[in-house]
Amino acid sequence: MDKFDFSLLLRAFSIFSVVATHFGLYELVGGSLYLIALSGFNFVKYTMPKLNSINGYPHNPSNTELFHAYFRFVGKLALPTILYLFVVFIITGQNHIFSLLLVSNFISPDYANGMSYWFLEVLLQIYLLFSIIFFIKPIRLSISDSPYRFFFLASLIAYIISRTCIYFFDTNDLFNRLPHLLFYLFLLGVLTAFSKTTSQKIKTSILLTAICAEAMITRFGGLITFYYFAVIATIWCKNIYLPKSLCTPIKLVAMSSLFIYLSHFQSLSLLKKINADIAPEISVLFALVVGIVLSTVWKKRFVLISITKTRISSSMQSKTVV
User: Fold this and answer.
1) 168-188 burial: b if 16+ Cβ within 10 Å, else e
2) Is 159 within 8 Å of 152 (Cβ atoms)?
């Protein structure tokens, strides 16, 4: 048995659930909402230390360095999404500008007949909102002084803003998939990452329960149910022991979640060209494999480009000699 990061397991299970629900294997909604919270959680774990390492942070950091560090991270999500959409549109002969601009969630939940990614759009828009706090000195100092207190209050305020906007402005036609309405989900993930002591974990759990209570009572089993229990688990459980044979495939699925999400409907479409009556189990497995392959290719793109250039150069030299 090996020790395994529990949030990584939940990330893999969340993307698996998204694909399985879309393909009719089973229905467990809310995985995408948890992935928003997990994005906030992982931002604190992996990106904030890079911001903190900038010379002069938090008092007088270089805005150029701060901008570069923050948006270099955001670009790692935006660039592959835009490029993937661009390639798909070229292959299919489509052209949907709001998908490429990553703002189709403001147009329609079924924009371009579904050829858009509301989850990634909202997440990127949330990152844009979140970036503001790092460029305002008093807020930076407040976070540096007491990150837990700041994000506890920020999560509560963001939730109140969300509920107020939903009450006064009807956005049901957009399924409420808007950054200012879902920002609190992200901030609760940030707060979870800053919940270090038992006291903080209890307070975060109470806040999370209070925020999710209405949806849990009125629509148990709906979007918030999975989100609630997954975040509670993330608060209280850091690691889990798994058989060594399971650790590698679970980690592969988790680390390939972006490309699994991007490509799973195209994977299904490809399978249906081969066999229209394909079993959902096979469809889900195939989508996971395709996503893992695409993710691996993307991560090794520079190596592959270098190898290709070398081979082309060698081929041209051979022809010249002949």
Assistant:
1) eeeeeebebbbbebbbbbbbb
2) no
pTM, whole model, 2 decimals? 0.92
Give the DSSP per-residue string, 178-241.
Answer: -HHHHHHHHHHHHHHHT--SHHHHHHHHHHHHHHHHHHHHHSTTSHHHHHHHHHHHHHH--EEE
Alpha carbons 240 and 2: distance in angstroms, whole number: 8
Q: Tell me the per-residue pLDDT of 57-94, one tens digit each, with 9 for 90 and over.
A: 988 888 889 999 899 989 999 999 999 999 999 998 88
Check: CB of residue 103 under 8 Å from CB of residue 171. no
DSSP output for 165-179: HHHHS--GGGTT--H
DSSP 8-class letter at 242: E
Q: Among 190, 107, 182, which Cα is nearest to 149's? A: 190
Can you give the pLDDT at residue 98? 94
pLDDT tens digits, 274-304 = 887 889 999 999 999 999 999 999 998 888 7
Contacts of 274 (CB under 8 A, 6+ apart): none
pLDDT at residue number 94: 86
Identify whether the C-beta of residue 251 lies closer than 8 Å to the C-beta of residue 10. no
Whose tokens are 């970036």? That residue is 131
- In a 13 Å sphere around the CA of 179, the CA atoms on its Cβ side amount to 15
Q: Beta strands 2-5 and 239-242: pairing type?
A: antiparallel
